[in-house]
Structures are given as structure tokens and as C-alpha cells.
Amino acid sequence: MPRYRLSARVRGPAARLAWFLLYTDLLLIPLLLTWAAIGPPGITDGEAVVLSSGLVGLSALVVAVALPARLPHLIAAFGIETILGVHRLIALIATAMIVVHLISVLFVDPRGLSILDLAHTTWAARAAITSTIALVLVVVLALRRTRRQPRYEGWRLVHNGLVMVVLVTAWLHVWFLRHLISHVAVAVWFVGSALLILALFARRWILLPLRARKHRYVVESVRRVPGDGVTLTIRAAGHAGLRFEAGQFVWLKIGSTPFVFEEHPFSIASTAAHPERMEFTIKALGDFTELLAALRPGRQVFLDGPYGGFTIAGHEDAPGFVMIAAGVGITPLLSMLRTLADRGDRRVHRLILAARTEDDLMLRREVAELRSRLTVLVTEVLSRPGPGWVGETGRVTQSLLRRHLPRRPQRSHYFLCGPQPMVGAVSAALISLGIPPRKIHTERFGAV
Predict the structure, then answer these.
(1) Most exposed residue of 93, 167, 352, 448, measured as fewest CB within 10 angstroms of its CB?
(2) What does the DSSP 8-state code read for residue 239?
(3) Alpha-carbon gap, residue 196 to 66, rounded angstroms
(4) Is the CB of residue 357 less than 8 Å from the CB of residue 227?
(5) How many whole angstroms separate alpha carbon 320 and alpha carbon 349?
(6) pLDDT of residue 225
(7) Which range, 213-227, 244-258, 329-343, has the best average confidence (pLDDT)?
């Protein structure tokens, strides 16, 4: 059986509201508990700023770490790109609060700047200084990542290591101060938040790899495909397959054990009707895709997943789907179309594929094969067409969409996958054509 089953309830407004309230509670409860225990009488305005900024900053750190902890229902409700976007925003808020906290302490504490003298200050101050420096490094390296484009796994290792330093030293700072945890309710909260982080860590780095080892796969074939891509096909080894919904993705690990650190997220391109055999098509970029191309049949691989709410599940009442992709963004849409074909779906669907040149159009043969089993109207759009091209040209604009959308476009559901600028522009064009935002489902490259 699947680990969880997607539904409108899992992904709908009620689920998103519930998650929002949960994380809001994580942010505000320690502040409320502390003020209830200590109370405003007897402390100055400066001390109030110190206390409040420190508590909100620490709570924001806990929320920032909990958000990307690979909770399936959370990812299904918001999508991985939204979660990581909020994760970055909360991390920036945490950094701002910690900086306010530090500056306030320098003004309020009679020791002034001498508190920064690591050789003669308190252990609480040493922990706070270490945590602040590590947090600033986390933010700086994250902001520079988009410009420098470092190797993903190296950056990720440094990022995770610094985050652990931030959390441990921040918690030690509170512990060494003692005046907060001397109140039972506040102490319970801080211990509980530490246990929560430890539980998420154990799940992420121990339980999920153990599950992946139980559901290991082996390489069946690797082949180059037009559009500078590699298609990897794997088959379940000794089990019925890891069931998933069409459009979901997994983290893929290669090695003798699922406890290896290096892993990469890829959308599943194969049908959900046969989870024992999975297929991925990956754009040939970087060292990892070269490693994939060199794999030989029989090599074992491990999967963490499935994840994501970018699926057709829960939308069975739609008269048809409109799918729009650029480049390798075709992969989750191909999984949806293959699954629909295997189910004998009789509705009319539309597929719009965008690329720079004809050679960049990926998986055209696979799409052509689907057209014999499924009613799908395919439109190819090239921004740099060559001589003799008779299809659409330019970009996926409002006018192009108007020509190829169904007669009653507001009734359909729309699935967009590709680079962030393309997904954003096409989403805006669809909304301008009167498509309700709730019927536009997106997955963007570069979110992870």
C-alpha cells in the first residue's frame, strides 16, 4: 500500500490552513508562554525587546528547519517550491530577529561590547555568538548560491552542517541562561522543540533510508534521448514497487547503501499503474547526470519518496487536462498521460511543449506513442525555429494559449512544469484569460 494517498482534503484549502495555523503556533507559543510566566512588570522596555526578539528568532529557526523535513502531507498541500520559498523567508526573519536580539543585548547589558570577548565572557554568550555567526554564514552562502552555482552536494553538506551548529548553540544559549527554563511551561516548550528537531532528524536520516533499503530498485536500462537527456529505467528488487501518484517525484540515491549523503530529486516519468518499473528522464547537466549515464544494468539504487501534490489525483471530475511544459518539464506530465492511457481515459487532453529548437524537444517519440492510446492534442512551440518549421513559434503567450485552449477553458485543470520564469509567465497569462488560480498547478525547476 502507498505510504499516503493524495486527496482534495490533503491538498485543499483546509489542509493549507491547518498547516499554517500549526506553524504560526510554533512561532508564537513560546513568546506567549514566556510572557505569561515572567510577566511585563519588573522588566524594562529594552529587556522586553531582548526577550521577545530572542524568542521569536529561536522559534523561527525551529520552523525554518521543520518546513523542509520531507513531510509528505505538507508537500502535498503546498508543493515543494512553495515550502522551500517560505523556508528561506522564515530563515531571513529568524536572522533579522537574532540580529535585533544581539544589538538589544549590547545596549541593555551593562557589560556592553565586552560581552563579545570570547575569552572572558559567559558560556551563554559564547553559544549565542557562535550561533549568530553560523546563522549569518548560512544566509550568506544561500544568497550567493544562485550567483556562484556551487556543486549542489558540497553546498548542501556545508549548509546542513552550519544549520546544526546554529540550532545546538542556540539551544545551549537558552540552557546556560537558566532564567527562561526555570519556568516549567517554558522549559517544557524548549525541551519539546528540541525533541521535535531530533525526531525530524531521526526520521530524515535514519527511518527514511531504512525504508528506502526495504524498497530498493535495480537499474534495468540507461539510454540517451534527443534533447540532451538521459532516460533511466529501474525495476523493483523483491517487492511490488513503491506506489505513487502520477506527477510525483522522488529523491534518487546511487550506492551500496541508502545512507549515502548524495541524492537528487527527479520527477517520475512512467505510469503510476506499474510502480514496479519506474522511469526518469534527466537533462544532461552536471556530474550526477554523467554518473547516471555510466550506470550499468543490475546496479542498485534507492528512492526516498514519493512526494508532491503536483498530480491529477483528486481532479477526476475535470472534462480534460491542459498540460504545458518546457524542456525536461515534460517528465511529470508524461507520467500523468501514461497513467491516463493505462486507465483507458476517454477525455480530450491538451499538451503544449515549449523549447528553443526542434532538437531541444524531449521525449517526442514517447508522446507520439501515447497519441495512439489517448486523445491528446499536442502543440509544439519553438522560440528559435529552424528552416522548414511549420509549428508555433515564439513563446507560450496569452494569444497562443487562446488559440489552443478548450472551448470552455475555465472548466479544465492546468498543469505547468518548467523553469521558474516560464511557469510564472504562463500562469499569469492563464489568469488573465479568466482561469481560476486554484485550477493552475505548477512545478518549477530550481526549487530544491
Answers:
(1) 448
(2) S
(3) 9
(4) no
(5) 5
(6) 84
(7) 329-343
* One-letter amino acid for residue 157 of the chain: L
60-102 pLDDT tens trace: 888 888 888 888 888 877 877 788 888 888 888 888 888 888 8
The rounded distance, in Å, linking the Cα atoms of 322 and 348 is: 9
Place of cell 516548550: 189
Residue 393 dihedral angles phi and psi, to the nearest 5°: -130, 165
> Of 219, 209, 207, 206, which is closest to residue 301 (Cα–Cα)?
219
Q: What CA–CA distance (Å, rounded) separates 34 from 17?
A: 26
Most confident of 10-24, 204-218, 255-269, 308-322: 204-218
Task: Report d(CA 399, CA 427) in Å as an integer.
Answer: 14
- Paired sense of beta strands 376-382 and 392-393, if any: parallel
DSSP state of 391: S
- pTM score > 0.70 for this model? yes
Q: CA 288, CA 277: separation in Å to the nearest integer?
A: 21
* Cα 287-310-360 angle, rounded to 5 deg: 45
What type of residue is 420? Answer: Q
**Three-class SS of residue 276?**
coil
pLDDT confidence band for 146 (50 / 70 / 90): low
DSSP H or E run through 426: helix 420-432
What is the β-pairing status of strands 249-254 and 264-267?
Answer: antiparallel
Angle at 141 between CA 292 and CA 52, to 5 degrees: 130
CA distance 447 to 208: 21
Helices (H), 183-263: 184-202, 208-214
Residue 22 above 70 pLDDT?
yes
Backbone Cα Rg of the chain: 25
Pick from 54, 67, 70, 85: nearest CA to 22: 67
Q: Give the C-alpha separation, 237 to 163, whole Å.
A: 36
Q: Is the Cβ–Cβ distance between 279 and 269 less than 8 Å?
A: yes
Helix axes 45-66, 152-177, angle to 10 degrees: 140
| Burial of residue 386 (number of CB atoms within 10 Å: 0-12, 13-18, 19+) | exposed
Distance between CA atoms of residues 76 and 308, nearest Å:
5
List alpha helices for 178-283, DSSP H.
Answer: 184-202, 208-214
